UniProtKB/TrEMBL annotation:
It comes from Mucilaginibacter psychrotolerans. This is DUF2652 domain-containing protein. Pfam families: DUF2652. InterPro entries: Uncharacterised_Rv2561.
């Protein structure tokens, strides 16, 4: 099994909140970054 690495950079406003001992980020830019990480696009490189 080959492992791959995805690198996503994003910009825009975001907020944070704490849950237990973790700090979570949320906002439109964070949601878009997560969608890019979880996509099934066949290409190795793309720009949004």
């Amino acid at each position: 099994m080959d492992l791959g690495l995805k690198l996503i950079t994003h910009y825009g406003p975001f907020s944070e909140y704490k849950v237990g001992g973790f700090t979570k980020l949320y906002g439109i830019s964070v949601i878009k970054a997560h969608r890019l990480l979880k996509n099934s696009i066949g290409s190795d490189e793309y720009v949004q």
